[in-house]
Write a structure and sequence with these properties.
The chain is α/β, with parallel strands linked by helices. It has 12 helices and 10 strands. It is 40% helix and 18% strand.
């Protein structure tokens, strides 16, 4: 993959940093007057992950200089990704090097309005000066309604704590879609690219895992810090706390709870029905909290409509199960135990089929049902999907 035609364009409304990655134009839209630099750093994280998954051979060249520290960090990132999934091939990076230049002196934290980012912000609120809300990561470029609501909540939190909200946009995820790379694999590189384009002195990335349950993911304790340059330091934060601990920490902040946003379903601030919403609604009920953006979980009935898909969701379910036992909620504990048992049975059957039957049972199931079996993806299998997906239309600023 070649990084070329890097362009920095300033208008009265925004600063647009763009480059060609082969035939794809990757862009970052930053606030008007932002002190951005026309370097290759912001384009290397997306290029690296996509190249490792899809390019044969995986090679990266850049017309613009790259930070020496970032280039060394990419070597470590490749070791981690390849160690998790050998289908990630090592990429060669051929480009000139130049020390990164000081950018914005502030300390920022990515802020989606979710439980993880709210906890990280509150934990480091004295140090953090800016909150970064990204459109084109968990919020689609085409989803105006959710984006507007997320900005409104971010501005409210920023005002309450005396911080500044920075709204950035990118089409980085579209590159992954076009090349058939899973979002779960790619979203950490998207955030890294945005942060490097903004150039803050330090950037906190809220983690969704804890020391007791770590699995492979695109944003991870072992990955995020290696995106650092000489002038921008990445900190992966929050691994010391479980979701229930994070909820307890922010329970005293009404402004954070009032706009809590956890859903990834397009068009929904929170749908209140998906596994991601329910995994947050459960501890809200168990800890006696409330959020106007999520419905009250009055009974365990909604839990019967979901099915755990992978080890990550199983881990979150187990955390909530242990919390339900601690507070004595037998109804929720029983429903979660049933979900975990079902997942273990499906995983055991699929593993047996894989190692003893060569996958013939799964193929027979697909033929009979006309669809893929609802199985598991151990550690979400970081590699790309079988074929590139057709891109959905997005906005080009």
């Amino acid at each position: 993959m070649k990084i070329s035609e890097i362009n920095l364009q300033e208008t009265p409304d925004a600063v647009r940093l763009s480059a060609k990655l082969d035939d794809f134009e990757l862009w970052y839209k930053l606030p008007a007057g932002w002190p951005a630099s026309a370097r290759g750093d912001a384009f290397l994280p997306p290029a690296l992950v996509v190249s490792m998954v899809r390019d044969k051979p995986p090679e990266i060249t850049s017309d613009a200089p790259i930070s020496p520290q970032l280039r060394l960090g990419c070597e470590q990132i490749q070791h981690v990704l390849h160690g998790w999934d050998p289908s990630f091939r090592y990429a060669t990076i051929q480009t000139g090097e130049k020390l990164s230049e000081p950018g914005h002196p502030g300390v920022a934290s990515f802020f989606s309005g979710g439980l993880d980012s709210s906890y990280t912000f509150l934990r480091h609120a004295e140090e953090i000066t800016h909150l970064i809300l990204v459109r084109g990561s968990d919020i689609s470029l085409a989803d105006d309604r959710v984006f507007t609501a997320a900005v409104r909540h971010g501005e409210k939190v920023a005002r309450a704590f005396g911080k500044t909200l920075v709204v950035a946009e990118t089409n980085s995820l579209e590159l992954g879609v076009r090349r058939g790379v899973r979002r779960w694999t790619y979203f950490g590189a998207t955030l890294a690219g945005v942060a490097l384009a903004l150039g803050f002195r330090k950037v906190y990335v809220a983690g969704g895992q804890n020391y007791g349950s770590l699995w492979a993911a695109g944003s991870h304790l072992l990955l995020d810090r290696h995106w650092s340059t000489e002038t921008t330091t990445f900190i992966h934060d929050g691994v010391e706390a479980r979701r229930s601990d994070k909820l307890r920490a922010i329970a005293g902040s009404r402004v954070l709870l009032d706009g809590l946003r956890v859903c990834l379903r397009r068009g929904n601030y929170n749908c209140g029905r998906c596994e991601k919403c329910l995994r947050t609604m459960i501890p809200i009920r168990l800890l006696g909290c409330s959020s106007p953006t999520l419905p009250l979980l009055a009974s365990a009935a909604p839990l019967r409509a979901i099915r755990l898909r992978d080890d990550a969701e199983f881990s979150y379910c187990r955390e909530n199960y242990e919390l339900a036992l601690d507070v004595g909620d037998a109804e929720i504990a029983g429903a979660l135990l049933s979900l975990m048992r079902g997942y273990i049975v499906r995983k055991t059957v699929l593993d047996f089929d894989k190692f003893f039957c060569g996958g013939r049972l799964a193929r027979a199931y697909r033929i009979l049902r006309g669809r893929d079996p609802a199985g598991h993806e151990p550690n979400r299998q970081l590699g790309g999907s079988r074929r590139p997906a057709q891109p959905r239309p997005g906005r080009n600023p």
